[in-house]
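Input/output pair, single chain:
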Amino acid sequence: MNLLLKFAPDHPYRFLGIGSEALALGDWEKAEAAFRRALQDGRLPTLLVRLGEVLRLRGGDARLEEALGLADEVLAKIPDHAGGHLLRARVLAQLGRWAEAAEETEVFLTFQPENAAGRLVRAQCRFEAGDLRGAGEEVQFLSSRKAQLDKRDVRTLRLLRSALLEKVKALRAGRGLPPPRRS
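Output:
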């Protein structure tokens, strides 16, 4: 690889590396610029997903819609691309399109059922749909897998756990509690 980059300094993999490093450091602007530069030489699915993830992290409706378009482009080329399904699910959730996010998450989890990021999206979707038990089960599953989540997702998990506890407390305080689960 180093030999390739020595003789071809504008190779897309150089920019993939730069973008990936910037993404890991939280420099989303630099990561976005590097991934966009890499895409000038071809629309490789991995690059599309990476750019989509950066756009998702940077937020804003225009960026989220672009990220959704990139996920759709990947899935049009490779319908079983797990990264494309996860990106699509996460973007849909961020846009508040919970039913669509839930469907996409289930597709993704058929490929990677133990994936913590996918299970976090599933937990959020279940919570938003009012399925407190299902959300609680996912939060419990994720509590033992925090190391698999990035810092931002760990924060989301904490917020979701707090919201779930508040909702349960409110139900117990007199608004009705769902019946106990029977095994």
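The mean pLDDT is 89. The CA atoms of residues 106 and 122 lie 8 Å apart.
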